[in-house]
Automatic annotation (TrEMBL):
This is Cytosolic carboxypeptidase 1. The active site is at residue 991. One of its GO terms (biological process) is proteolysis. It comes from Hucho hucho (huchen). Belongs to the peptidase M14 family.
Length: 1106
């Protein structure tokens, strides 16, 4: 300030600072004149403002000091503060707050209020600045309450209700005060809520700015449930005011006022009393009608969306149309662990209604005190370093594990007598019904009913599959099969005649070398199911040929979710339009209703099928209810069912109404799968992505606390899609993802054995029998030794092991398709496949949960438990496949032959692409606040090699989506247990998307079986490259391995050349709203816990590692 070349403003500040020191001796008028000059310079020169706010300048401190010294200068000093703060936005206001400006202003409010009467001009200026400063000061509400400024503003408001000039800044400050919970409650007790209703009113062209601020202030106050209860009596008033503004604001100039009214209603209806008052005041009809009238005007979308949110909250909770949420099928367990979820299910008293609670509202008492903000972080990350270190001792004595030596014959085989062991399934003569494309009844031919169904007239014994003849046409174009319709379904294809009718089927032998309908039927005969299925679904019988065309991720149509929700709301508004007709129900095994073709016919009684109930709600709309996993009361996600009796060109809507996850890829472009029998007969036997207007949102069906882990007030979610059928007399199948049954696996394994060459070592053992009586296959694949010399036998026995598993979760069928690609590559005749077999011994459990797959479960086995949460302490009685698979690994660890790689194949419902989860001590510690020495964090980074190789060669694989953090909720999974207890550093879960890709060559495309199988093959080639990188000297003798990359690229081009994508994926135009509340509920599903890390978090330190 004392420099000779100082600017005018700095000189003035120097004079002002001097006057402040001599405040008792100087005439205040001089200070007023100096301050006025400063104000003039600030208002007219941007350069002056920047100079004052620049780093090192003391201008702001001088102004604040002047305020403290002389109350007579309040007006002009406040003007200076306003001029300094406003043009610079948040940064300059932040400087003002950091200099203690908030506290000084609040103290000036107290001082000015003591004058009699208070200066209107001073109060106006002070509150104008406070309205701008308050939002930038996190402690503003606390400061105002502690120094008494809160009450000053309230009293000023009460005394100046007609003084609109002063009222406006006071309301703005109150709005900021109300953002603090304690302040909001205090203001409510002081009568401010009732005061707001004196200010707001019906449509008027006057004082619209004041009304807008009043509504925003009221909305902020009503976020407190205490205040919301005070405002319940005003719900009819708010609805009247909203309707009045809607009717008169024809030019839509006051959308913000209308939105403010809706915001108040939204906050009041957060409580049960508010929802009841809304319904009693006919709020549903008022908002529905006004929203419908707003639909043609795009700019009114904010009003429509908020109205939709309110109506969904207030929609009366309905119960699922079920007698119980427990599975319709039951499997008695010999032993039930005490205290577990299955025990609770078994011990549930008779007569308890487990579908809905007496009260479906979660009215938690509001904490009426201030809550400090906390940093959001993932509390699930493991922080105990001891649990992140591998165990040094084995938990089981070797004598117990010696019985597993028989599964490792290759480690002691001398090949003096060449033997190949491949166990085939035992023959069975169980009666099975073969699928056909019927739509009308065959003459005198009706299948026998299942157990529990009522008999039909003129029944005949079901067809034994041993008597079926499948013959080729002479021209080889198709098969002819004598077959019968499904039980309870009367239909016939146009190509079928009377008795002895035959069905022309596509010849897929050339396209599907691993598929054989005859063999599939044989496999079905030996498959055991709880419902004792006697039917075979057409797609499983005749196979799936992947389409050659691209299937793009569906672009979301703007407003589709809103339209669907409004159609749901119409059920309450126009109840007489609802049919509510049950057309399919597994809980009631009765005769189907013959309705003259007015309803669709449904069926899910075949392997892997899941549909419990179908209710026709409108002529072309059906609510569908999925079955719980057996011995469970939840896990509704997987579906697979048949539909027939459709009308061509009719717009059908299907609603799966008991989904449980709070989010789904159905909101991001994923479509359902459909298989058309008529299309298959025409030479296109394939699953295709289909459905339009797809969305996923919270519905009005109440989820009981019994099924929601004790939480009340939860709702189910609806997955809805629309469908128009193209063929008359068609039979269509719908599925969550590409079905892959247990019988399909058995068929594929037998076909693979037939493809084995003399150079391939293949052995299939039965690892164990499941609870349901199905065998769990274990495969051993490697290359035969070139000779029986000691060197060759030694090399054979000492090959590193790779252990692979899949399908522990039945609903993740994509895992089986990836495994199919792996198995086909391993059994292939290419030089790459032979090199891979020479490099490793593969131990593979292709299906860890056969019972869950067979019975249409989504996540559990017949024990009612998630098998991928049982690896720490599996039970041989309840979790035999996990127990014996872990025992195999424990045996290998005991003989010092732990696998080089362990990988468990999974599917992911929330994310796109293919990616891996691994285990890293360092990366887990880095994500937490725990301290550890560099010695404790010593870790080989080899766990990153395989996923990095995959990211370089597999177009669907995304390294950015990978995570190597160990979380508490995953400590009992295969990946973590094998890493920690078996000591396998490269222990992975490989997750494949159910939807599609958002990066790479497949960006914007939905994933299909071709890409999934390709991923399985790419995984094999990545293992070969891993071998090259870890053992380069040994493999230099294999010259053909040096061309892995070029061979791989050539293979990729041949397989997937039709899937090149040109266009970028477009983002959705409509904001996606998943829940009926303003925010999403936390998702506690164990399958999605890996999602808790953001991309930025999971990528942390990645650059330094790679």
């Amino acid at each position: 300030v004392r420099r000779p070349n100082m600017s005018m403003v700095l000189m003035l500040f120097g004079q002002l600072e001097k006057l402040n020191r001599e405040s008792m001796l100087v005439d205040p008028e001089i200070a007023r004149q100096i301050t006025a000059k400063v104000l003039h310079l600030i208002q007219t020169q941007e350069k002056t403002r920047k100079e004052i706010m620049s780093k090192g300048s003391s201008g702001m401190e001088v102004i604040l000091a002047t305020l403290e010294v002389s109350s007579r200068l309040i007006g002009v000093c406040v003007c200076v503060c306003v001029s300094l703060s406003v043009p610079g936005g948040g940064r300059r206001i932040g400087v003002f707050v950091s200099k203690g400006g908030t506290g000084i202003l609040l103290q000036l409010v107290i001082s000015a209020s003591k004058e009699s009467p208070p200066s209107e001009e001073v109060m106006l200026q002070l509150h104008s600045v406070l309205a701008k400063v308050g939002p930038k000061d996190r402690k503003f509400g606390v400061k105002a309450r502690l120094n008494g400024a809160l009450n000053v503003t309230v009293n000023l408001l009460k005394q100046n209700l007609q003084n609109h000039k002063l009222l406006l800044p006071c309301l703005l400050v109150l709005q900021v005060y109300s953002s603090n919970t304690v302040n909001a409650v205090s203001l409510g007790k002081n009568g401010v809520v009732e005061l707001m209703f004196k200010i707001i009113g019906p449509y008027s062209k006057k004082n619209t700015s004041l009304l807008k601020v009043s509504l925003d202030t009221l909305g902020a106050l009503l976020k407190s449930k205490t205040n919301a209860r005070r405002a319940v009596v005003h719900v009819p008033v708010l609805l009247y005011i909203y309707h009045d503004w809607h009717r008169n604001d024809t030019c839509h100039r006051h959308i913000l006022i209308r939105k403010g009214i809706l915001g108040c209603l939204k906050n009041i209806t957060n409580i049960k009393l508010g929802r009841k008052a809304f319904i009693d005041a006919d709020g549903m009809r008022i908002l529905y009608n006004t929203s419908t009238e707003c639909l043609p005007v795009r700019t009114l979308d904010p009003l429509i969306n908020t109205s939709s949110l309110i109506m969904r909250k207030c929609f009366p909770k309905n119960r699922l149309p079920l007698p119980t949420i427990k599975s319709v099928f039951h499997h008695q367990l010999l032993r039930v662990p005490a205290g577990g979820p299955v025990a609770q299910l078994y011990n549930q008293p008779l007569g308890v209604d487990d579908v809905v609670d007496e009260s479906d509202d979660n009215e938690d008492a509001e904490a009426e005190n201030e809550v400090e903000e906390k940093d959001h972080h993932n509390d699930d990350i493991e922080t105990d370093i001891n649990k992140l270190r591998p165990k040094e001792t084995h938990s089981r004595p070797f004598e117990e594990l010696k019985i597993y030596e028989r599964f490792f014959m290759e480690l002691s085989e001398d090949f003096q007598v060449m033997q190949y062991i491949f166990l085939s399934a035992p023959k069975s003569h169980r009666q099975i019904i073969v699928p056909t494309a019927q739509a009308l009844p065959l003459k005198n031919h009706t299948a026998a009913p299942l157990q529990g169904e009522c008999p039909h007239p003129a029944t005949v014994p079901p067809l034994d599959l041993d008597t079926i003849n499948i013959t080729k046409d002479q021209d080889g174009c198709g098969d002819h099969t004598h077959s019968r319709p499904h039980p309870g379904h009367n239909r016939q294809s146009p190509i079928l005649g009377g008795e002895g009718a035959v069905l022309q089927v596509p010849d897929t032998a050339l396209l599907l070398p691993l598929h054989d309908p005859d063999l599939y039927v044989e496999m079905v005969k030996s498959t055991c199911s709880v419902p004792q299925f006697s039917e075979v679904a057409y797609p499983d019988y005749f196979g799936h040929v992947a389409p050659t065309f691209r299937e793009h991720i569906l672009e979301r149509v703007y407003g589709v979710q809103r339209t669907k929700i409004f159609q749901d709301i119409e059920r309450l508004i126009h109840p007489n339009d609802i049919l509510d007709k049950v057309v399919y129900d597994l809980d009631i095994q009765s005769c189907p209703v013959i309705d003259g073709g007015e309803s669709l016919k449904f069926n899910s009684q075949f392997e892997s099928g899941n549909l419990r109930k179908a209710v026709q709600v409108r002529k072309f709309e059906y609510d569908l209810v999925l079955n719980s996993d057996i011995n469970s009361n939840h896990y509704h996600q997987w579906f697979y069912f048949e539909v027939s009796g459709m009308r061509v060109g009719a717009p059908y809507r299907f609603n799966i109404i008991n989904c449980e996850k709070s989010n789904s890829q159905f909101n991001y472009g994923m479509q359902v799968l459909m298989y058309s029998v008529q299309e298959a007969i025409s030479g296109r036997p394939r699953w295709v992505r289909t459905g339009t207007d797809i969305c996923y949102y919270k519905n009005h069906f109440s989820r009981s606390s019994i099924a929601a882990g004790g939480q009340k007030g939860k709702s189910y979610y609806t997955m809805t899609f629309s469908m128009t059928f193209n063929h008359k007399d068609d039979v269509c199948y719908f599925a969550y993802h590409y079905p892959y049954t247990y019988s399909t696996l058995k068929m594929h394994l037998q076909k693979l054995e037939a493809l084995r060459t003399p150079q391939t070592y293949l052995r299939e053992d039965v690892l164990c029998e499941t609870l349901g009586g199905n065998s769990c296959p274990l495969l051993t694949i490697t290359a035969m030794p070139e000779s029986t010399s000691n060197d060759q036998i030694c090399q054979f026995r000492n090959r590193p092991l790779v252990f692979l598993s899949s399908r522990v979760h039945p609903g993740e069928t994509n895992a089986s398709w990836v495994m199919k690609g792996t198995l086909e590559f391993l059994m292939g005749s290419s030089p790459l496949a032979q090199s891979l077999r020479e490099a490793y011994i593969f131990k593979i459990v292709p299906m860890l949960n056969p019972d869950g797959v067979v019975n249409g479960n989504h996540r559990c086995s017949l024990s009612g438990e998630d098998l991928n949460r049982q690896w720490q302490n599996p039970s041989p009685e309840l979790h035999p496949t996990i127990y014996h698979t872990k025992s195999l690994l424990q045996y290998l660890a005991a003989i010092q032959r732990a696998p080089l790689v362990f990988c468990d194949y999974h599917g992911h419902s929330r994310k796109k692409n293919v990616f891996m989860y691994g285990c890293s001590l360092k990366e887990t510690v880095w994500e937490t606040n725990i301290s550890a020495t560099s010695c404790e964090l010593h870790e080989d980074l080899g766990y990153r090699t395989l996923p990095k190789i995959l990211s370089q060669m597999a177009p669907a694989f995304s390294m950015a989506s990978c995570s190597f953090v160990v979380e508490r909720s995953k400590e009992a999974t295969a990946r973590v247990v094998v890493w920690r207890e078996i000591g396998v550093q490269r222990s992975y879960t490989m997750e494949s998307t159910l939807c599609g890709c958002d990066q790479g060559k497949y960006k914007g495309l939905q994933i299909g079986t071709r890409e999934l199988e390709e991923m399985g093959a790419q995984f094999c080639v990545a293992l070969l490259r891993l071998k090259r990188q870890t053992s380069p000297l040994k493999l230099r003798n294999h010259a053909h391995l040096l061309d892995v990359e070029s061979d791989l690229m050539e293979t990729r081009c041949k397989v997937s050349s039709t899937y090149l994508l040109e266009d970028e994926e477009q983002s959705f135009m409509e904001e996606v709203d998943y829940s009926a509340e303003s925010g999403d509920e936390p998702d506690n599903d164990p399958n999605t816990a890996d999602n808790h890390l953001s991309d930025s978090e999971s990528n942390k330190h990645r650059d330094s590692l790679t």
